[in-house]
């Protein structure tokens, strides 16, 4: 997940290294197509999510920085 978020930060003006990183992500996804999350119908689905965003880290271009976390069950 971290790799996908890191790659998404450079989607406006990608460099060659960013494109190679994205290519590695797609290679991984195609190599393991059956991996995923499974939520049975009868299980209690208790999802809690928190997010935050600000402009503090980007004084020059004023682009926002966003972060979040999700908790499934406790």
From TrEMBL:
This is Putative ribonuclease H-like domain-containing protein. The lineage of its organism: Eukaryota, Viridiplantae, Streptophyta, Embryophyta, Tracheophyta.
